[in-house]
Amino acid sequence: MFLTLPRLLSWFPSFGVPADVPGGGIGIGWMRSFANDAATFVTGFVVNRLAVVVAAFFVLRAVLDVADGSSPLASILAAMFLLSVPATAALLRGWNNLTPNATADVLASLWTYVVSKIMPMAAGLAVVGAIWNFWQNRPWMRLVGCAAGFLTVAALWQLITRMVA
Amino acid sequence: MSFENGILNLTNWLGNVIMPTMAGLLFAVAIVRYAKGYPWNYSMWAAVAALCVSGLLRALETFASQAAWNDPDLIWITLLQLVNWVCNVFLPIYAAAEVVLGAVHYAGLGRIMPGSAWLRHFTAAALCLLASGIIRLAEFFVLRGTGGVS
Q: Are B12 and A126 spatial neighbours (Cβ–Cβ below 8 Å)?
């Protein structure tokens, strides 16, 4: 939403509300200085240092999750997500086509990326989980169905759209 | 560092490194449970499955790729392929195994089958000493099966 906010604001003039975002840099000195400091804070402190430390905490939490008897997967994925914040931000920026529909387009690209890249790999994790649950006499068929579902999400979407058409 | 690389490497590491290693532990658990007279089948089949995580995923991918990715019938075709495989490949093999077991029981060999306590302990001792060989044998069968069932 923040990435596509300027394009989203470009809808407002059509409603009769002037909301043009001026081009170029920030002209007011103290405000430009504040913007630079905020950017440095976010990049240097939050992304490069704090996110890494929080990711390390989630790795520790994954071990504690196992000790607690729950799945460590959520904590591991959270750690991976925190470590990959710059790459994810760059990916989202790459999908921004700078049109008034950019917000929906970025979300559509994100959906396609998740379905075509992440879900097939998640299917592998579901197979591993199914084997583990089978060994422990816990429900495992739902994880096999989940793996098959991950591999066919796009077809499921097409099926739903055809049903409502 | 990207999230995609992270989850890809996590999946590969779990499926190709950790699970095949865990297969040895699962076989050991199966042998100990067998020695104690507890149900051991789940551990043994889980060990076999742990050796072929990639194969199971490839099988699911094959079932799920019999039509174009945006074909609304893909869900039904995937289910159809799975049902066909279970009925035409799995059940005939299972039937052969049941016929063999039926013949063994009909011949009265049930009394000295591994269900008997004394033989179970001797068999368990042999299995404990042969654990590595059993795992290698299972790996051999899995490797032989990479060509798929034709």
A: no
d(CA B135, CA B147): 20
Whether A74 contacts chain B with CB within 8 A: no
- As a whole number of angstroms, the longest Cα–Cα distance in chain B is 64
Could you report the predicted ipTM of this complex, rounded to two decimals? 0.72
- A29: buried, middle or exposed (CB in 10 Å: 19+, 13-18, 0-12)? exposed
- Dist. CA A62–CA A77, nearest whole Å: 10
Give tens-digit pLDDT for A96-150.
888 888 888 889 999 999 998 889 889 988 998 898 888 888 888 899 888 988 9
Residue B96 distance to chain A (closest CA, Å): 24
pLDDT, mean of residues A34-58: 89
- Is residue A3 classed exposed, middle or buried when 0-12, 13-18 and 19+ CB atoms within 10 A define those classes? middle
Measure the CA–CA gap between B20 and B41, rounded to whole angstroms.
18
Rounded to the nearest angstrom, the minimum Cα separation between B91 and chain A is: 18
Please state, for a pLDDT cut of 70, what percent of chain B lies above it. Answer: 90
Of A76, A88, A148, the CB nearest to B64: A148
Contact (Cβ atoms closer than 8 angstroms) between residue A148 and residue B74 = no
Chain mean position to CA A88: 7
* B6·A80 Cβ contact <8 A: yes
